[in-house]
Design brief:
The chain has six helices and seven strands, in the order H-H-H-E-E-E-H-E-H-E-E-E-H. The longest helix has 17 residues. Strands 2-1-5-4-3-6-7 form a seven-stranded mixed sheet. With 205 residues, it is of the alpha/beta class.
Length: 205
Amino acid sequence: MKSLKEKFQDYLKKKSVFGKISDLIFIVFIVALFIPGSRLAISGFINSVKAKIIEPSIEKVSEERTVNFNEINWQLTNLEGSAVNFKDFKGKVIFLNFWATWCGPCIGEMPGIQKLYDKYKDNENIEFVIVSNENFSTVNSFIKKKGFTFTVYTSQYKNPEIFSSNSIPVTYIISKIGKIKVKETGAVNWGGKKTEGIINDLINK
């Protein structure tokens, strides 16, 4: 009967380089699942792949809702410590995203949000409102570590009813007159041409 060492040597001889690499990746993946600190990274990676595939969609006219800025009094704080009110963004196209540092799908779609932000960061007709209900220090530390530069806010207030959702991430694209044109739950490809087309259309109206 062959020893464990002999079996391993036979494995090395029979396996191709590609096969060895594939097996190694699989083993690392399994081991990482049992290490708490690695689970979020794996979830983020998986969801980043999903986010490259799933495109946003325009809501049907019959389902379209309108944000009443006159009734909203929602205070937000950016990472510079400055307070703003959501109603101050009235008259602009708004890209509104709810997320959390512990949320794998949220992290997975963030590179796409960064790509979209980079395209429009100098356009005064659009406002990026990326919101977390976690405490300021947690959010600030996460964003700095990841190197994201889009505008992030924290809020200790209840989200407006029109933006209520049982899960995150959830993202809304809102027209200049407050029409919710897009609502997507889960990791989505925000950095693609389809999102750019939606936003360009809303900016030009």
